[in-house]
User: What shape does this take?
Amino acid sequence: MIFISENVSLGSTLLDISSGRPEVLWRNENLCADTSTAIMIDGYLYGCAGGPEAKHCSLRCVDVRTGEIAWEQDFGRMQLTVLGAGNKVIIMEDIGMLRIAEATPDAYVEISSCKLPAERGHKWWTPPVLYKSKLYCRNYYGDLLCIDVSN
Assistant: This one.
């Protein structure tokens, strides 16, 4: 299968390519790829709904088989990026709010959060990178923060 996600007005599509000819399994506006694409963990997509044309941005959990929304968490922000790590979803809001949540289709379950420094009106649009229990976060101005998430 191939998951294609576009901006807020075009939504996303799931294609089955097993026969050699693409077949649309579903197409809807439940996820978009404004600043980052959705991630898949255990048959569920976690990604953004909203973007620059929307008044807010929320994180959604979508069943990959059906394209239906399992849950939605509204953050009231314009943009966010996501990263998957094991059974966790790492969420970076554009204002520098970093959140770690359980990857579960039952509900949004936040484990921890912290606010990163936001000098000069920094925007945190780059998805975080996880390497050896260190989370690297880069903002629009090129500042790079390293957070130890081993505990």
